[in-house]
Amino acid sequence: MKEVHFFDYLFREDFRKWIGHHINAVLKRELFKLVGDKNKKIDWKRIHYLSELATYPEGVSEGWYKKIFSYAPHGSVRGEITPEYSTIGEDGIKYLLELIPDVKIIYIIRNPVARAWSQLKMNMVRNGSLVKGESVTDEVFVENLNNPSIMDRGNYSVFVPQWDKYFTEGENILYIPFDDIQSEPQRLMSEIEEFLGLPKFSSYEGLSKVVHKGSETSIPGIVDAELQRMMTGEFEYLKTRFSASFNSRV
To answer: Lowest CB count within 10 Å: 3, 108, 128, 176, which one?
Structure first.
C-alpha cells in the first residue's frame, strides 16, 4: 500500500494538515474508481471498507491504521511505502517497534543531489512555478531551493543512524541503492523476497515501467552547483556508511 502516512502524521506535526487532505483525496479517488463506470459491477465490500476508513470515529489512530490492512487476504504479507517515514525520528521509530515488533524496513538510498532535484521539480510543479512548455529562469529555481523539503528526506547523516540504532541491517532493515530499481529489477526483487521471507517468484510484470514520471526539465548549472554544495556532508556520510559498490549505485 502506498502513502498511508500514519507514522509521519503522528511524529511530524508540520505534515498533519496536508496529510489529512491527502488521505481524504485518496479515499475519494478510490471510491470514484468503484462507482465511476455505470457498466462496471460495484464492489460493495470495498465501498464499505473505504467508508469505514473515511468515517472512522477516532480518525487517524492505531485502530484506523490496523483497519487499513484488514482488507488484505488472510495470511498475506502486508506493508506500505512512503519516503516520509525515514524522517519520523527516534520517538517515531520506537513507537513503530512497539506497535509492530516484527516489522521489517526497506530504506531506499538515492543520490542526494538527484533526490533533491526531483523534490525541487515536484515542489515547483505543485506551486505553479514550473509549467510544461514554459521557460523558467535560474533565479526562480534558486528561490525554490529554500523549501525545507529539499534537504529533509535526503538528510541521511541524521536519519540513517537513527534507524541503525534500533534495527539490524540484513535482519530487519534492508538498504537499497536507488539505481538497482532500474538496472537490476529482477535481482532486486529476489533480494527483497529473501529479506521478507517470501517464496521465489520470477513472473513479475512491469518491473521496468516508469511510474509517475516527473518533469524532464534538465537541472541548470547554478542549481546543480548549489545542490552539490548543500549535499556535501550527505555524500561524505554515505561514503563512510555504505560500501563503494553501494555508493556507485545510488
So the answer is: 128
